[in-house]
UniProtKB/TrEMBL annotation:
Keyword Membrane belongs to the record: yes
Organism of derivation: Actinoallomurus iriomotensis
Protein name as catalogued: GPP34 family phosphoprotein
Membrane topology reported for the UniProt record: Peripheral membrane protein
Keyword Cell inner membrane carried by entry: no
Domain of life: Bacteria
Gene Ontology molecular function, alphabetical: phosphatidylinositol-4-phosphate binding
Subcellular location(s) of the protein: Golgi apparatus membrane
GO cellular component: cytoplasm; endomembrane system
Keywords: Golgi apparatus, Lipid-binding, Membrane
InterPro entries xrefs: GPP34-like, GPP34-like_sf
């Protein structure tokens, strides 16, 4: 996978457990993928924050269909919060991203009779290992690539093992610092995941 791969695509592969050969943390992943789309659009200058709401700024030149669809939604509904856009489309985003990866031969999707969820496998693990290395390097480097730093923060918010290291408190402080330049996306993602977990557990 080359450097032009989008954050949603990289995050999806990062969620692949190479030992169990399956996608993990799918509940959190759906929201993290939506946040990844927002961050990608933010880094490319397509959207901006205006007093806690998302504003479409530059709608041309968005070549990725998943990003382009999200950008069109944001343009059509200005003034919505970041939490709104993290939640919006979360049920379909995993399928949209997996379809892209499948079309490029990076994953294999097998639909099983009687089961709603398809089985996902990665025939070549090298892209997964490379993305994992990118994330862990971002945790160590003083000035990591912005996309790698964002990927690290997304993985952490979704609870993916690739973001886990020793020294939990120092890691949390480091990730929070890396997420600061990306504005309100990560607070929104964490709030949505926290709220969904509470709802799933009956508010306990």
């Amino acid at each position: 996978m080359n450097g032009s791969a989008t954050l949603p695509r990289r995050l999806y592969l990062l969620a692949y457990d190479t030992r169990r050969q399956r996608i993990t943390h799918r509940f959190e992943l759906r929201y993290a993928l939506r946040a990844a789309i927002l961050i990608e659009l933010l880094l490319r200058g397509h959207i901006a924050d205006r007093d806690g709401t998302v504003l479409a700024e530059r709608t041309g030149g968005c070549d990725d269909p998943v990003l382009r669809a999200a950008l069109a939604e944001i343009e059509a509904a200005p003034g919505r919060s970041w939490k709104h856009w993290v939640r919006a489309g979360h049920r379909s985003v995993e399928r949209a991203v997996s379809d892209q990866l499948s079309a490029d031969g990076l994953i294999t999707v097998r639909h099983r009779l009687g089961l709603r969820r398809a089985r996902i496998t990665v025939p070549d693990l090298q892209p997964v290992l490379q993305i994992t290395n990118d994330v862990r390097r971002a945790l160590r480097e003083e000035h990591p690539d912005p996309a790698d730093a964002a990927l690290l923060a997304l993985a952490d918010a979704a609870g993916l093992p690739a973001a886990a290291t020793t020294g939990r408190r120092a890691r949390r402080q480091r990730i929070d610092r890396l997420a600061e330049p990306l504005g309100p996306v990560f607070p929104a993602l964490r709030a949505v995941i926290r709220g969904m977990r509470a709802a799933a557990s009956g508010g306990s």
